[in-house]
Amino acid sequence: MTKHWTVTALLAAAAFTLLSGCGRGASLAPDANDRSRPLIGISSMHIPKGQYDRVGSAYSQAVRDAGGTPLILPVIADEALAARYAGILDGLLLTGGDDVPPGAYGQQPVKQTQTLSPKRHAFEKMMLEAWLPTGRPILGICRGLQQTNVVCGGTLVQDIPTQIAGKVTHRAPGATTHKITLQPGTKLRAMLAASTVQVNTNHHQAAAKVGKNLKVAARSNDGLIEALEFTDRKFGLLVQWHPERISDPKHRKAIFGAFIQACRTSKTAKP
């Protein structure tokens, strides 16, 4: 437990140092002299039992490998802090985790829904409301797709196995994969240079009604939405699978490379 507290405290301290302007001569990037590396905010998961925040290291590693500087965002539901983050970050990465509260999209929870942290939902909602008007790049993964779709006015399938008739396995013990079809004319299809791809999968929820300024970019064979794209910005991608830990390194590099390149372009365009 002490370890988790220490990690969260260090992350919060690093964020405070960056936000307060302290240590401006230093850089969090692997190459301290390369200031072209965009700063990417990565959302974390709040664990109510024990009161600590955590995030899988694969997200940060994928951002770093693609040329970005990862900054983990502690779960602090504060509108002023969210606005400050939106002012300094070059890109936003929303990660996977527990279910979005069904009340956020006007539904009562089914028994399979597991909402562990309303605090996380409150923080990410504030973060999205501050971030989306900037027009800067966003990448949402698994829950990140679901959270963003809800904030944009969409809804979710709360439990795929009990609510959707289909033969595609979206969650199973251990590693499981399935095929998805990338929609013609989407940036995702151009990014991956394919019409179908095999993806890793570990989710029991999915987007249902699509939110404002979003369009479907991929579906699985049972018709479920597997990816969404924003229509009002140069880069805005939401995927239901986990490219940060997919077995195909070219797939991971294609998605994170495009994200970081868009963030780098956005960084140079900042006033």
Can you describe this structure?
This protein is of the alpha/beta class and 271 residues long. It has one domain: Class I glutamine amidotransferase (GATase) domain (Rossmann fold), CATH 3.40.50.880. Helices cover 34% and strands 21% of the residues. A hairpin with a 4-residue loop joins strand 2 and strand 3. Helix 2 crosses helix 8 and helix 3 packs across helix 4. It is globular and about 50 Å long.
Q: State the shape.
A: globular
- CATH class reads Alpha Beta
CATH architecture: 3-Layer(aba) Sandwich
User: How far from one another are the termini?
Assistant: 43 Å
CATH topology: Rossmann fold
Total count of strands = 13
The rounded Rg comes to 18 Å
* Stretches with pLDDT under 50, minimum 5 residues: 1-10, 20-30
Beta strand %: 15-25%
- Let me know the average pLDDT: 87
Secondary-structure element order, N to C: HEEEHEHEHEHEHEHEEEEEH
How would you briefly describe this protein structure?
It contains eight helices and 13 strands.
Give me the secondary-structure topology.
Blueprint: H1 2-20, E1 39-43, E2 45-47, E3 52-54, H2 57-66, E4 69-73, H3 79-88, E5 91-94, H4 118-131, E6 138-141, H5 143-151, E7 156-157, H6 160-163, E8 177-182, H7 187-192, E9 196-200, E10 206-207, E11 214-220, E12 225-230, E13 236-239, H8 249-269
Parallel strand pairs: 1-4, 1-5, 5-6, 6-13
Antiparallel strand pairs: 2-3, 7-10, 8-9, 8-11, 11-12, 12-13
